[in-house]
Known about the structure:
Layout: E1 8-10, E2 13-16, H1 31-43, H2 48-65, H3 73-82, H4 87-104, H5 114-143, H6 147-158
Antiparallel strand pairs: 1-2
Helix pairs in contact: 1-2, 2-3, 2-4, 2-5, 3-4, 4-5
Amino acid sequence: MQCSEHTLWLSDKMLYPDTGDAPLPNVEMPEKIKALYAEAACIQMKSPRGAAALLRLAIQLLCVELGEKGKNINDDISALVGKGLPIIVQQSLDVVRVTGNNAVHPGQIDTDDPTVVTQLFELINVIVEYMIAMPKRVSGIYDSLPAKTLEAIQKRDES
C-alpha cells in the first residue's frame, strides 16, 4: 500500500509523520480513541510516559464507548466485568489503566521504557478486537442465518 500524503525523511528515518513504533490501530477502533492512539504514537519515542498517559485516557474513553459512565475508570472496568467482560480484556484494561496512572503518579512500572508503552498499544488493539471488532463480525455472520433458524435458537434460549 502506498501513502499519497507527504513524508519527510532523513537518511533512512521517517521524521514526518512521526508514528513511533506503535502497531497500526485496529480498523474498528472508534475515531476518538484512534486520535488519542495516534497522538500517543507520535510522542512514544520522545515521551513514553506521555504516551502511556494518553493511552490511559484512551481506555477511559473506550469504556464510555462500551456503555459506561466515564467518571471513574476503575468503576467502569468493574461494571464491564459484571456484564460478562472476558478476563483477558479486563486484564488488558487494568494493565493500561495502572501503567497510565503510574505515568503521571510515580510507581513501580517503568513508563520511561518505550517497550512497555508498545505493549500498551498492543493491549488497546486487543481490547478493541474483543469488544468491538469480533462482536461486529460474529453478529454479521449470525444475522445472516435463515430466519427460521434464528427463531428456533431464540425459542431454545427462552426455555
